[in-house]
Amino acid sequence: ISWFPFFAVVTMAQSQTAPQRILPEMNEANLERSSLELANGAPLGADCYFQSTCASGYCSSGIFWMGSCVECNNDSHCPGQGESLPGELPVAFCYKGGGGAPPRCSQWKRGEPIDERGYPIWFHGESEAQWIPRIVMDEGPVMEQVWHWDLSNQPDETAFEVTETHVSIPLNAHTIAAYSRTYHNFHEHETGIVTAVFLSNSISVVTPNAVAGMMEKYHTLTYNGTMSTVRADRIREEVAARSEHTKNRAEKVSVQHARGLSMGISIPGVIAEQIEAGQDDMHLDQIRNYIKDLLADGSSLENLESTGWDQHSEEAKQTLLDAKTLSSMKSENHCKHFEEGAGIEVTDTHIVIPLNSAFATLSGEMQFSPTYYLGLNAGVNIAKYDASTNTLEFYYQASQQFRDYSDPKVAPEDLPFPSGIWVSPVNASTPAPSVDGRSDKLYRTSANRGWLPQFLVNSYLSEPVDYSIYDKDMSEACPQDLQEELEPVWLEAKLEEEGESGNLMAGLANMKHLLHVSVIGAPCGSNYMKSDFGPGTVGFELNEFSVWSHMILEVEQEHTEYIATSQFWNDWDEFLKNGEGFHPTL
User: Fold this and answer.
1) Which of 499, 2, 585 lies closest to 314, judged by CA?
2) What 3-state DSSP class applies to 565?
3) Which residues fall within 8 angstroms of residue 328, CB to CB, at 6 or more apart?
């Protein structure tokens, strides 16, 4: 299938299905009416013929009939003007409810918060929605993690610069840290090694407020909890039952399959729905306000009630010893997004982070194998330096956690946990909001894919998935001729992104160059994307496409190809076991 003729057909068909992407210009008359006008205008509900009659500035009259003064006639009359970006919940929608009630501006498109049933996600090919409930915890945090960098032992001579008040970390450089993490809501605890690259992050798919962040690959060395292998088991059984013809066809049609999948997902906005279902924006504002309070009175996380830092710190230090002998049992691909307003600065070469000072962090998590889920969380982060050992630690308390098991072929009863979003108090005196604070801009009550997305879904679901795509060496997976073909497209994808606004994941279908490089360039990310659990269990499906396209979206254009195709993501093993980079300071 030729990509660009294919995209032309998509462009004609998506006008009725793709979300609106362009933010309307703010109308100052709507937002800054004079007090005199408001004082002299008629109140809501009063009879009117003209807009100027009403204090609100809006009358529901028509050409031949009288109306009444209302808050709004359409979304552009509300402060958020119909746009509710990931991580925010503005009063954005003009809700025109039934029963004769006048239209009013609301934070929700449907005029009310999401109910107890939750948020529906319509996966590709499914006729029933997956409902994502919101679970309120009495105590927090939901998740805790410590990163532990030994600054005397970093690969590629990566050098951190530390003063009494700040740490400066090189951008786009290979770093290795030990970690210890606990999901209290899942009763999961693990330790391991994380390969992390710090980035300038002015564009994020989970928050409009990001200033910097990390791209990460985790390698789990110890694990306590319920590790489900249901996804990997299903794939291995499926592949074992394939005929030689089917195995050969899976590799032969992998690009066509990926193209159909990418558009079948992008046009209806499945990934954007997952993000909206996985962020409680009211609760996020609680986290942000709490951080403002901490910064205002000079407090740090050392003043908080949790004692999790010390425990996780000791375990992370021990992990540097464990790495000498243990192998990774699974891997995960994460990203971190540090929000503005906490003193974090980004220069041309470094990210500069205040020490002992709180900053808001939002995270995306993805596991491809042995199970299959997307996770999101948000909370308070802090950096601390120990001069006696030349080590840097981050301690992260997340008070909301989303996990969506996203393989429709696995029955819910076979999963270790239900999908959902968990929220906890941000501190002992601030309970989580009782109202579900998720946006419903993309909320759908039916699949309603339209003929083209449904055709694409049916097309790619009818073909076998190539589960060997990430098991090949770079020279085989991404040969020189493919690298040369991709070289100009990386830049075109980034330039195309700069012309977009609003919810990027909701507008993927408009980004032909990004989709092009995501599809044909997928094998070139094998080092980052391959699973430690074992070969033959990862293909290019929903979660893999989400991780790969999101990486291309968020990394700065001059570094996109380097970060995406780098071969260092799994080098921790050799680095820590060969002795040259192994001198843990305990």
Assistant:
1) 585
2) helix
3) 192, 193, 219, 220, 221, 532, 573
Whole-number pLDDT of residue 378: 98
Contact 258, 540 (CB under 8 A): yes
Using CA atoms, how far apart are residues 85 and 90, in angstroms rounded to an integer?
9
How far is the C-alpha of 202 from the C-alpha of 494, rounded, in Å? 13
How crowded is the C-beta side of 534, counted as CA atoms within 13 Å? Answer: 9
b/e map 344-363, b = 16+ CB within 10 Å: bebeeebbbbbbebbbbbbb
With left for phi above 0 and alpha for psi between -120 and 50, is residue 130 left, alpha or beta?
A: beta
- Beta strands per DSSP E along 225-358: 330-339, 345-346, 350-354
Q: How far apart are CA 525 and CA 150, in angstroms?
A: 27
Residue whose entry in the numeric block shows the structure tokens 């993309």: 442
Contact present, 537 and 146 (Cβ < 8 Å): no
pTM score, whole prediction: 0.90
CA distance 173 to 140: 34
**Mean pLDDT, range 333-362, rounded to an integer:** 96
What's the pLDDT at 263? 82
Q: Tokens in use for 174?
A: 């290979």
The secondary structure of residue 202, as a DSSP letter, is S
Query: Distances in Å between the alpha carbon of 28 and those of 34, 41, 77, 150, 214?
Result: 11, 18, 11, 52, 38
* CA angle 422–424–430, rounded 5-degree value: 150
- Token couple for 40: 């002299």
Query: 104-145 pLDDT, tens per residue?
Result: 999 999 999 999 999 999 987 677 899 999 999 999 899 999
